[in-house]
Amino acid sequence: MSHHLPHPQATAARSIPRSALVRGARLAALPLGFAGRSALKVGKRLAGQPAELLAQELQRRTGQHLFSVLGELKGGAMKFGQMLSVFEAALPPEAAAPYRAALTLLQEAAPALPAGRVAAVLAAELGEDWRERFDTFEEEPAAAASIGQVHRAIWADGRPVAVKIQYPGAAEALLGDYAQLGKAVRLCSVIAPGLDVRPMLDELQERVAEELDYRQEAAAQQAFADAYRDTREVVVPEVVAFTPRVLITEWLDGTPLSRVIREGSRAERDAAGLAYTRFLLSGPERAGYLHADVHPGNFRVLPDGRLGVLDFGAVKHLPGGFPPAMGRLLRLALADDWDAAREVLVHEGFLRADAALDEDALRAFLSPIADPSRADIHQFTRAWLRAQVARATGAHRTALLRSLNLPPSYVLVNRVVGSAIAVLAQLECELPFRAETLRWLPDPAGGARA
């Protein structure tokens, strides 16, 4: 049973750079820093350095610079970096290695908050006697991410717990970062040309208030824990206690999904990919929520093979399951019925009624989820994902894609689907994707499952 802990009136010490001028300058330095290294490249080439080695060094240092700045700023900058990290599978091979090394770090690591700051937050949230609530509390954080960090502890009743602590100044940092990041998105053309990140940034900004209030995260996490408690594939830690800036849940050991991506056997990657897919697709029907922070750092593979899921700060409430139009569009795409698909897109607000039909563009828009569903088994690979990105980018100038709109109710769902597909490509897993999509996405009748 979880407890809503009292929130004593106190002021915690600040740790994140709060000045908009300071934070803005750091973010603005990202593209400027890249330009500076371009000049350095020219200078070294004049000194006789091989061009290909210079290019590799430039990419490596740009990746390191990106991690350093986004990581130290935390807040919205760090969250944005984590979102970008799932798309590293779409990078061309010659550019992937340096960015993969730097961006993948963002999935699980960030510069940690000093122990004194941690104690100040806990005292403000739990009271000056906060240590009495724990048998033990580890001062060194077990993980540090975008707006908070996690410490391992033993609760007073003997349970191992994870204590998630929000960074002081996180609210100010998030609000300021989203304004400044809009000016720095051209850096993404260096990381992943053709990736339109501004809609993702806009959608993230809309969810700031939700992620900053750990009471909402506690409610969502407990809903998932209740829904998956008796399943054999997924484990969600129970909520133990919470305040607006501290969330305490049962501890969950396991192998990070990012390590499975790097080191897992084919069988391990296939099993993880299937559990990951099934969890994301089944969430709305089973728990009434869609888990919306799908980067690998939020998932663990337990020793018994089950998938452990963490971090429920970003969710979308979908009590009736996925929108029925998603299942309808999937089946129409599989049947190559593009006239009917166009009608659904117009009805749902994706497309103006007077927009010209372009079958190639329709295919490009729907193919990330439709193509893997065409056969009983699909092999997700980085090469396949790059082909998908190239296809969509190539069709970008068509009349249809210029006319496409993303209705507000679909923004988060669309982002989750795209990000999850990118993670499956990182896993390079083979799985019965068709069976899972037809099972969990509503059919045209809105009732029976295929």
Task: Jot down its keywords.
single chain, 450 residues, alpha+beta, 7-stranded mixed β-sheet, 4-stranded mixed β-sheet, 19 helices, 54% helix, 12% strand, disordered C terminus
Summary of the model, kept short:
The chain has about 450 residues and is α+β, with helices and mostly antiparallel strands. The protein has 2 domains: about 1-250, no CATH class; about 255-450, no CATH class.
Description:
- The protein is an alpha+beta fold and 450 residues long.
- The chain folds into 2 domains: 1-252, no CATH class; 254-450, no CATH class.
- The chain contains 19 helices and 15 strands.
- It has helices at 20-46, 51-73, 75-85, 93-105, 115-126, 170-184, 188-191, 198-206, 208-212, 214-228, 257-263, 266-287, 324-334, 338-348, 359-370, 382-394, 399-403, 408-427, 433-440, and strands spanning 3-4, 134-137, 143-144, 148-155, 160-166, 234-235, 239-242, 246-250, 255-256, 289-291, 299-301, 307-309, 315-317, 378-379, 430-431.
- The strands form 4 sheets. Strands 1, 2, 3, 4, 5, 7 and 8 form a 7-stranded mixed sheet that branches. It has a 4-stranded mixed sheet with strand order 6-12-11-9. A two-stranded antiparallel sheet has the order 10-13.
- A hairpin with a 3-residue loop joins strand 7 (239-242) and strand 8 (246-250).
- It is globular and about 65 Å long.
